[in-house]
Amino acid sequence: MESTAPVVDTSRWMPLDWFVGWNEMFFMPLMFLISGLFTIPSIERKGAGSFLADRTKRLGIPFVIAVTVLGPLVYYPSWLSSDAVGQGDFLRHFFTDYWSGGPAWFLWVLLTFCGIVAVACRLLPDLMKKLSWSAPSARSLVIVFLAVSLLTTLPVRLFVLPAAWSKLAGPFVFQTWKLLLYFAWFLLGVALGGENLELSLSGNNLRPWPIWLVLGAFAYGGARPAGTAWCMV
What we know:
Elements: H1 14-37, H2 39-46, H3 48-80, H4 90-98, H5 105-123, H6 125-130, H7 138-157, E1 165-169, E2 172-175, H8 179-193, H9 197-200, H10 203-206, H11 209-223
Antiparallel strand pairs: 1-2
Helix pairs in contact: 1-8, 2-3, 3-5, 7-8
């Protein structure tokens, strides 16, 4: 499985591929990081049970609507123009043969991450407090994030193709080799959010961001044509 969509356009345009790749490699981990930043404060304010119930409502309900209502509506026109239209019974084929999370796949993954942390805070509160982390400098911030990213992607890349997707059941799919990366960035957000977030993300720590951006862009642009794995980090 190399896509969350049952319909994939065979025509390719390199600039768009690069844009999608950059979006996937930067904004997806960033989204999980930002979600993690507010997890501990929210649990402390609401309690683990209320926090998880709230996340289920905010993430679970949109996911269910996306995979049961929006998905069939989006793919029905493509199905009408395919050879399968002669078989009829679109909904049965969709939910048995092609059912996928589509672009909404990350919602159930994020909900799972939130559930893991909520349960851990409930059962092991002292351990979760010890795992909180405050970055004293920009250098420590970069070193930790780079090290965690490399450790959660390169070993997996030895056994899993970059385009591979895994399916548990029904619409529950995920990017196979990036799952650990997303979880790691989420946990980094949890660690930062549970300590002195203002210090870790202070102006002094984030002042070198233009340099990080340029270095990241050069690394991505230089490595992507060769198809190397480290450009995915």
